[in-house]
Amino acid sequence: MLVKEIGEQGLLAIVQGFCPPEMVGDDAAILSVPGDQSLVITTDMLVDEVHFSDRTTSPIDVGWRSAAVNLSDLAAMGAFPIGITVALGITGDKSVAWVEQLYQGLTECLSHYNTPIIGGDICKSSVTCISITAFGTVNPKLAIKRSVARSGDIIIVTGYHGDSRGGLELLLHPELGTALTSDQRSSLIRAHQRPQPRLDILPKLQTLLASYPSTAIAGMDSSDGLADAIVQICRASKLGAKVQRRLIPISETLQTFVTPQQALEWALYGGEDFQLVLCLPPSLGETLVQQLGTDASIIGEITSNPKILLIDDAEPSTVEELSLSRGFQHF
Amino acid sequence: MLVKEIGEQGLLAIVQGFCPPEMVGDDAAILSVPGDQSLVITTDMLVDEVHFSDRTTSPIDVGWRSAAVNLSDLAAMGAFPIGITVALGITGDKSVAWVEQLYQGLTECLSHYNTPIIGGDICKSSVTCISITAFGTVNPKLAIKRSVARSGDIIIVTGYHGDSRGGLELLLHPELGTALTSDQRSSLIRAHQRPQPRLDILPKLQTLLASYPSTAIAGMDSSDGLADAIVQICRASKLGAKVQRRLIPISETLQTFVTPQQALEWALYGGEDFQLVLCLPPSLGETLVQQLGTDASIIGEITSNPKILLIDDAEPSTVEELSLSRGFQHF
């Protein structure tokens, strides 16, 4: 069955089945926001053959990723999700099953965070595109912002970087990666297809902050690459950074898959790892890293010198500047 | 200058110029919602050659309409706007001026309602599409819903119906409408290109409601046509309606342009008039219509009989049922 055969009303009935019944059926959805919380809003559009492709991503994975991208933006603000809307532009010759699987992927990801789809729109389009707007709440004192890093802050990243780009490479070129075990291949591909928004970090961070009153949290997510995140934070805070090349967390699997130079390139510029990059006063940051164990790493520090440098204490001659221009840019 | 020449960062800098500087630059925007208000959220996607076309709509008008469509959905819930997000998928060969004019149209419409663009996304796409999510607030007791009409309610519509469809016809076929004056042509075209969300009705309605405690307001907007709005309200409320054909407000201009039968067809099924359709107890509804003067009309009543009938007391034999199937349907 194709979308153009079931029609708009038929398709709406199917996708509304993925929403809480009390939320849909009016011109707009109504949500309550607790009085001591601010509302946090983020929006992202994903377009067929730009952000995903039937060659590398099943509709379930497109759904998962679409939800995860937006929840990661909420996590990057320190906010907990309360709902998303989904606007879907779709070609008439997509199958109805494709749409159902897209919503299945969306709700699979969202269900981990008790987040409903509260509304949306469906329309015909000559290219399939998905626009998601996600809503969250944060105590305004605990909001994470790019512009509030201080000179002397340590830079902390969660998880590994580069795995998502490695997974994409395996999907595009399955003949590569012969040195990898089946589990290793799956782990890289999963990093690309099923990224995990790091909402799990927030309760730990916010509990710790109770002991550091009036400390602002600087940070963002690494959706456009680790280098991009560091540059964006430094620009917004009008500061610089020194990042230690050897401290950037790269998984053993990725190191097995490609050369150290390639792995570093993907960690810095590959993007789509959806980890958090936080800048915190050293004592607070070190306590957080102790609590998170191998799931977090200190990779450098914020400096008053505005240059953003990648350094290697063991090879002082290899200093280079981090830039935005090597990451993915639209157009 | 083309979009692909200025690139993502250049384009972002331009569109961020249309946003309050304190709202943009992070992973998400932060808004506060007063504690006694609920948050209302609506989303709509507009796609090139489906919802607009360079043949009939300038980029400024695309912007105006995109904002108006979403603000009308807020009005249809009884909510006042507090902000919108704009996700734009765009082909690389559109001109940068096109994007600027789009945002100019958006902000022109929004400025009438003191509503900022608080965030968004820009990405490459093989077809230009705009996805807007609008946020508003409403006292939950004053929310307008489709499902709360009562048998005996009178059906009130604001403004005229059919003018937007008339304006579209003039844009598609400029050789028509030779009987119209220049002002009449402009008035129909303006109804199509510059629809006005009926947020102006809300203060009057909500003030009146203070004298009718615990009266629920049933209604929606007529974005998909007057017939669609009446059918949707009746379905959601599990009731029917009798609509008097001769009471449907059709402008003199439209009556000059086309035959009475064509004008009625466009009023019922043309869509995009973005008026409000309200169902209210007779005394409340009549008071509202007195206050609004020629800007509102009583066109019928809600019935316990579930049929949705278009009747004409002067020609009892002409009864017909209103349906969804004659309005615009995607796919």
Question: What does this protein look like?
Answer:
- 2 copies of one chain form a homodimer.
- Chain A is of the alpha+beta class and 331 residues long.
- Chain A has 10 helices and 13 strands.
- The longest helix of chain A has 17 residues, at 59-75.
- The model of chain A has no long low-confidence stretch (mean pLDDT 93).
- Chain A has helices spanning 3-16, 59-75, 96-111, 163-172, 182-193, 201-209, 226-237, 252-257, 260-269, 282-292, and strands at residues 29-31, 38-47, 80-90, 117-124, 129-138, 144-145, 154-158, 217-221, 240-244, 276-280, 296-303, 308-311, 320-321.
- Chain A folds into 2 domains: 6-140, 60s Ribosomal Protein L30, Chain: A (2-Layer Sandwich); 143-321, Phosphoribosyl-aminoimidazole Synthetase, Chain A, domain 2 (Alpha-Beta Complex), CATH 3.90.650.
- In chain A, helix 2 runs parallel beside helix 3 and helix 4 crosses helix 5 (182-193).
- Chain A starts with a helix and ends in a 10-residue tail after the last strand.
- Chain A has an 8-stranded mixed beta sheet, with helices on both faces. Chain A has a 4-stranded mixed beta sheet with strand order 2-5-3-4, with helices on one face.
- In chain A, helix 3 (96-111) links the parallel strand 3 and strand 4.
- Chains A and B meet through helix 1, strand 1, strand 2, strand 3 and strand 4 of A and helix 1, strand 1, strand 2, strand 3 and strand 4 of B.
- Strand 2 of chain A pairs antiparallel with strand 1 of chain B.
